Amino acid sequence: MKKIISKSVVILLFITLSSFKSNNDSGDKIIGKWILPDNIRIEIFKKNNKFYGKIIDLSGFNDGQTKDVKNPDKSNRKDELIGKIIISDLEYDSNLKQWIDGTIYAPQKGIELNLKINYANGNELEAEASKLFFWKSIVWKKYSF
After folding, report:
1. d(Cα 81, Cα 8) in Å, to the nearest integer?
2. Distance CA 12, CA 1 (A)
3. Pick from 120, 123, 122, 121: which is nearest to 100 by CA?
4. pLDDT confidence bin for 2, thresholds 50/70/90
5. Which of 53, 65, 120, 144 could form a disulfide with 42 if both were Cys (CB 3.0 to 4.6 A apart)?
6. Where do the domains of the chain lie?
């Protein structure tokens, strides 16, 4: 009887640890608040297994800019930047351990770029934005109030 209970405990422990590992490897470590260049603060969240980011604070951004004045669509230039979704459709690839196939809108220039996140740990992540043959990697820092 003790052997059966021991084996059951071992199997249950294995199943629990396996599910914990798969949950840890879901790419969720990018969820949270981050400081981007030019003092844009965003919050990354997950929806339908994709990651999105919205602007939550603009303190110190672009000489006090609060509207989307560089938007290529003139009808959107009066839109507020706070609350604007600037990261879209980012997916976690567990084989590559990277977040891929997303886009990021840069309100400083009014352009949309391809986005990939190469790594993330508890305090920083490396984002790589590209357009055609040009790319740039930038480290974002974790933000807390």
Report:
1. 55
2. 17
3. 120
4. low
5. 53
6. 30-142
The answer to whether the CB of 79 falls within 8 A of the CB of 105 is no
Provide the pLDDT confidence category of residue 143 given band limits of 50, 70 and 90.
confident
* Tokens, residue 141: 């820092």
CB within 8 A of 135, min separation 6: which ones?
128, 129
β-pair partners for 124: 141
Segments of the chain assigned E as strands? 32-35, 41-47, 50-57, 85-93, 98-106, 111-120, 124-131, 134-142
d(CA 69, CA 78): 7
Is residue 68 classed exposed, middle or buried when 0-12, 13-18 and 19+ CB atoms within 10 A define those classes? buried
Which CATH number is associated with domain 30-142? 2.40.128.520
CB 114 within 8 A of CB 105: no
